[in-house]
């Protein structure tokens, strides 16, 4: 694929990174690309502990031109590239939505890997905003690599949850039809349900209204992806909730029934699932809103709220997933 301008590359890697928004917790969602020999290779960070976006992109590029083994862990790929690159990346241009990491954690430093591989340039969408995490830019510049910081606001939006969940990040999730119907059983597709269960596997706390629990009698686990079930806060002015509802019988979780939201102070990554009444009562505490819009119409109760909504990004699959605030 011939590349005519770098703007296209950032469009591509930003869109790819958004597919893994929330799923990289506690790490940020990041996209990267390597252009070498007039071909583009992309990578995204998919899960905490797994290779970072830059590593995926570098490894894809290297393997396209070399007979290399199947490697999966960050450490294996880092060590192999350092030993066998032989200057392959010296004419390459690297693009990444977030400043390459300088610190060593569950994975080795991407900045030090790039220092060893020494591409011609590294274009960075947004500098690392977390205190103590920076330093990647200096490492690259000091090794003679041309570094550009673009301050692309879209790249900031991509990592906003990561910044906030250093303390606390709360988002509200709602599935609805094209005409705003929110009742009547499952609305979203199986693909979207899998995505929600993947997110439940990552969050610390799930908040739901008492009426929803009484009516829907949900389980609120992550069984579709064999994931862990988050703790649950049932927000209700009165109890009257039967304990044989499935959500009470999930192992290794705490369930709270409270008439206040003080419990949110004890958690970092929180999803709220509920209807109109709960949303209108707690929307002042919400950082982001995520609407899963199913491509169908239904003659049922419609969601109503007086609220403004800034769209940050949309993902399209079987449904339209709209991220905003």
Summarize the structure.
The protein is α/β, with parallel strands linked by helices.
Structural commentary:
The protein is built from 9 helices and 13 strands. With about 325 residues, the protein is an alpha/beta fold. It folds into 2 domains: about 5-165, Cytidine Deaminase, domain 2; about 170-325, 3-Layer(aba) Sandwich (Dihydrofolate Reductase, subunit A), CATH 3.40.430. The chain has an 8-stranded mixed beta sheet with strand order 9-8-7-10-6-11-13-12. Strand 12 and strand 13 (about 320-325) form a beta hairpin. Converts 2,5-diamino-6-(ribosylamino)-4(3h)-pyrimidinone 5'-phosphate into 5-amino-6-(ribosylamino)-2,4(1h,3h)-pyrimidinedione 5'-phosphate. In the C-terminal section; belongs to the HTP reductase family.
Helix-strand blueprint:
Layout: H1 6-18, E1 31-36, E2 39-44, H2 53-65, H3 74-84, E3 93-98, H4 110-117, E4 121-126, H5 136-142, E5 146-149, H6 153-164, E6 169-177, H7 190-200, E7 205-209, H8 210-216, E8 231-235, E9 255-258, E10 269-273, H9 276-282, E11 288-294, E12 311-316, E13 320-324
Parallel strand pairs: 3-4, 4-5, 6-10, 6-11, 7-8, 7-10, 8-9
Antiparallel strand pairs: 1-2, 1-3, 11-13, 12-13
Helix pairs in contact: 4-5
EC number: 1.1.1.193, 3.5.4.26
Pathway: Cofactor biosynthesis; riboflavin biosynthesis; 5-amino-6-(D-ribitylamino)uracil from GTP: step 2/4; Cofactor biosynthesis; riboflavin biosynthesis; 5-amino-6-(D-ribitylamino)uracil from GTP: step 3/4
Family: In the C-terminal section; belongs to the HTP reductase family.
